[in-house]
């Protein structure tokens, strides 16, 4: 079993256990995760800090993940969380984008983990330290007051993610909303800007820039080429270097 699921099974106070269950729901929905969805839902239903409406939403998410085709569930997850900035699960993507500050923020976050006596496992699935499920798992190791303060530092990102998922009409929206509710933070969806696909953001620029297109055919039509002969130099024309 993965490290997150092992951590979820470790005895813990109800809020911490619920936070771990929510972290699992945001993880990649592989066969292992889908096999344990019932356990995650049972843990959440035992949580007094979540409203009936929120639990109902989480129930619909679990039902969707359980009933849908495995390939469809996994491909939808990738399309939702890995193809756009607004729905990215990497916290610093929302704050720093691709700037240099993101690297330093990542270093600082790892140091926060290490100061708490936790180290990332080498086989962490290739996820960065700011991956939301991992950040939520770390928060679950803190006492209630510290967890509330820690999650409060990125509550605005959770609200932004919640709003973006609502805009996409995704049931995953109930997960960040549940984290906010569980941790006692206000649920206040923010305005979602037009999203730029990460694939477009990383696209290479065109190799040739600035060629005039006036008078050309459409890109999908053949383009005629006109060859103009240059007149030969006459005998009376002085040659260069003569």
From TrEMBL:
InterPro entries: DMSO/NO3_reduct_chaperone (IPR020945), NO3_reductase_chaperone_NarJ (IPR003765), TorD-like_sf (IPR036411). Keywords: Nitrate assimilation. The keyword 4Fe-4S does not apply. Transmembrane segments: none annotated. Residues 209-242 are annotated as: Disordered. One of its GO terms (molecular function) is unfolded protein binding. It holds the Pfam family Nitrate_red_del. GO terms for biological process: chaperone-mediated protein complex assembly; nitrate assimilation. Residues 233-242 have a biased composition (Polar residues). The keyword Lyase does not apply. This is Respiratory nitrate reductase chaperone NarJ. The lineage of its organism: Bacteria, Pseudomonadati, Pseudomonadota, Betaproteobacteria, Burkholderiales.
């Amino acid at each position: 079993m993965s490290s997150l699921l092992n951590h979820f099974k470790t005895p813990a106070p109800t809020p911490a256990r619920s936070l771990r269950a929510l972290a699992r729901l945001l993880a990649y929905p592989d066969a292992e995760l889908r096999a344990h969805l019932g356990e995650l839902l049972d843990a959440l239903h035992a949580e007094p800090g979540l409203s009936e409406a929120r639990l109902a939403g989480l129930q619909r998410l679990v039902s969707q993940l359980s009933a849908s085709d495995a390939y469809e569930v996994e491909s939808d997850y990738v399309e939702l969380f890995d193809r756009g900035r607004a729905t990215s699960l990497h916290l610093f993507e929302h704050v720093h984008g691709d700037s240099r500050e993101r690297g330093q923020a990542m270093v600082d976050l790892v140091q926060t983990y290490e100061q708490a006596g936790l180290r990332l496992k080498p086989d962490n699935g290739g996820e960065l330290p700011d991956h939301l499920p991992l950040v939520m798992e770390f928060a679950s190791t803190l006492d209630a007051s510290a967890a509330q303060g820690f999650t409060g530092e990125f509550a605005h990102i959770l609200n932004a993610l919640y709003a973006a998922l609502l805009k996409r009409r995704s049931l995953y929206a109930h997960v960040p909303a549940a984290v906010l509710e569980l941790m006692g933070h206000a649920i206040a969806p923010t305005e979602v800007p037009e999203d730029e696909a990460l694939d477009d953001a990383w696209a290479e620029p065109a190799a040739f820039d600035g060629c005039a297109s006036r008078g050309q055919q459409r890109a999908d039509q053949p383009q005629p080429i006109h060859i103009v002969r240059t007149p030969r130099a006459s005998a009376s024309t002085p040659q260069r270097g003569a």
